[in-house]
Design a protein that fits this description.
The complex is a heterodimer. By secondary structure, chain A is of the alpha/beta class. Chain A is built from 10 helices and 10 strands. In chain A, the strands form 2 sheets. Chain A has a 6-stranded mixed sheet with strand order 6-7-8-3-9-10, with helices on both faces. The termini of chain A are far apart. Classes of the chains: A alpha/beta, B mainly alpha. The complex binds adenosine-5'-diphosphate (ADP) and magnesium ion. Magnesium ion binds next to helix 1 of chain A. Chain B: One of its GO terms (molecular function) is transmembrane transporter activity.
Chain lengths: ~240, ~290
């Protein structure tokens, strides 16, 4: 049996003096897994820990069978992990085009600057604008383009639909599905927007206070009202 | 009188060129990378002294220049990797540690090279005097110095704005974590930048020792000049460093002619004025 792409066992993460992740167990073989949960339960910390952005972590983190816990971000990137962080974090002093030039790995890979511009024509129009002169949606496209240009095996998206218009969210959902269905990328998607999570992902995991407490197929989770109530505090309306 | 004015103008520009070479390395490491290296003047002095020794032994000025830049670049790399990178973001500690190191370096250099004033002998063709018509002659070396500073300025500017290394530096200054997340090792990048910046200080040591001279105390003089040029011109801006260096160099040299007692004061008055009216410096932005 092939090794799963991402395997977390008993992952603990500490920020300052506060323990945020309390033993996360998670397996992501391929496709797309959405992690949902209320604000502040540690979803972003999970994303950042996998990318190597949290120095104080213990437990096991395997990527395609290789133990990589505690590696710095540039080494995780070298192993094929990329992140679209919460809040976009584009570079204020670089223009759109400069972001893409810096991030482009090779012109022979699946994702190139040209392809990012084809996918997000809006970015092509704004190519000379700096990161800070873009709208929220444009910054999100840029952050996604920047991550895609690394041509990762594992793409972590932390609340990519935050602050986007419904139309852009629609396009983004289609793109994410295409990435894991026809391009063989594996996606870890953190979503506040429950609808997006269950419509894009194959599986959904629920996080509460730094642990994964429930995991299910997206289709059955979508109609499991009892689970919504129990884990997310959502009423029947959701 | 006019002749004198023109000559002191040229002196001002050539001193400015020297300040620019020193400060261009400083504006990139301090202004862009926000690393506080108050031992930067020592790198200038180390480059000058070691360059002098090598030049003295080999009778080759070019080798002196290469050796001076190389030893300063190497020292800067060790300093960045061994000390400054570990104290990242801790301004006060970086300042204190590098002040301490610069005091130690000054004493060690004094012990090794003595309190003498050294002056390099450049190749013959650089010692020529270029005729400027009615204004008389002017040393070719100083004109070369001006040309070299222009070349270095254009080189750094193009490197920062056009190359991927330049993009990475600017991105790393904005958000080190995200630069790392797209595959660049920021510590290694900053060591490379510190090496280049320090090599410029060493190069300036040799050039300064040829155009003027070098002796104990020059370290703090050039550190101060770099600080003033960087702050007046605008942190991290190469164009700003050029403007700042011209302002400081001209004030100093033209001031020597017209108000000799106050020319140094004038430099600091300009800095105070700029800080009061335009605290971000005269030129904004990275390039
Ligand atoms: N630098 C920090 N030091 C201490 N606690 C932090 C720090 N940053 C975030 N936290 C806390 O960690 C918890 C988890 O944050 P986060 O991972 O961002 O949650 P989520 O993404 O699920 O909203 C929150 O309760 C937050 O207050
Ligand atoms: Mg979050």
């Amino acid at each position: 049996m092939p090794e799963p792409l991402l395997e977390l066992r008993g992952l603990f993460a500490t920020l300052g003096n506060t323990c945020i992740l309390h033993g996360v167990d998670l397996t992501l073989a391929s496709g797309c897994l959405a992690v949902v949960g209320r604000n502040g339960v540690g979803k972003s910390t999970l994303c950042r820990s996998i990318m190597g952005l949290v120095p104080d972590v213990t437990g096991r983190l395997r990527l395609a069978g290789q133990e990589l816990l505690g590696r710095p971000p540039h080494e995780m990137e070298g192993q094929g992990v990329a992140i679209v962080p919460q809040g976009r974090r584009t570079f204020p002093s670089l223009t759109v085009h400069e972001h893409l030039r810096l991030a482009q790995k090779s012109k022979a890979k699946a994702w190139t600057i040209e392809r990012v511009y084809q996918t997000f024509p809006r970015l092509a129009e704004r190519r000379r604008n700096r990161g800070t002169q873009l709208s929220g949606g444009e910054q999100q496209m840029l952050a996604i383009g920047r991550a895609l240009l690394r041509n990762p095996r594992l793409l972590i998206l932390d609340e990519p639909s935050e602050g986007l218009s419904p139309l852009v969210v629609e396009q983004l959902s289609a793109l994410m599905q295409q990435l894991y269905r026809s391009e063989g990328m594996t996606l870890l998607l953190v979503e506040q927007n429950f609808r997006v999570a269950v419509s894009v992902a194959e599986r959904v995991a629920v996080m509460i206070s730094g642990r994964i407490v429930h995991e299910d197929e997206a289709s059955s989770f979508a109609s499991d009202h009892e689970a919504h109530e129990r884990f997310l505090g959502l009423g029947e309306a959701a | 009188m006019l002749k004198l004015a023109v000559l002191s103008l040229l002196n001002g520009i050539s001193v400015a060129a020297l300040y620019f070479i020193v400060a261009s390395g400083f504006t990139v490491t301090f202004g862009l990378m926000r690393t506080i290296n108050l031992a930067y003047g020592s790198l200038f002095l180390i480059g000058g002294y070691v360059g002098y020794q090598v030049g003295d032994l080999t009778r080759n000025w070019y080798l002196a220049m290469i050796a001076g830049s190389a030893i300063a670049g190497l020292s800067g790399a060790v300093l960045q990797w061994g000390v400054l990178d570990r104290l990242r973001g801790q301004d006060m500690r970086q300042a204190l540690v590098t002040i301490g190191l610069s005091i130690v370096a000054a004493d060690v250099l004094l012990a090794v090279f003595g309190g003498l004033t050294y002056q390099f002998t450049p190749p013959d063709w650089m010692q020529a005097t270029v005729s400027l018509g009615v204004f008389g002659g002017y040393p070719a070396f100083r004109l070369l110095l001006i040309a070299l500073s222009l070349f270095i300025g254009v080189f750094i500017w193009a490197g920062l704005t056009c190359t991927r290394v330049g993009l990475a530096i600017r991105a790393g200054v904005d958000d080190r974590e995200m630069l790392s997340a797209i595959g660049v090792n920021p510590s290694r990048l900053f060591v490379i930048v510190a090496t280049c910046g320090s090599a410029l200080a060493g190069l300036a040591g040799v050039i300064g020792g040829t155009a003027l001279s070098i002796s104990p105390g020059e370290d703090s003089r050039y550190l101060l000049a770099s600080l003033v040029v960087t702050i007046v011109g605008g942190m991290g801006s190469i164009a700003g460093a050029a403007v700042g260096a011209l302002l400081v160099g001209l004030l100093e040299q033209v001031g020597l002619l017209y108000f000799p007692n106050y020319s140094i004061v004038a430099v600091y008055l300009v800095m105070v004025g700029v800080l009061a009216l335009r605290p971000q410096g005269l030129v904004r932005g990275t390039a």
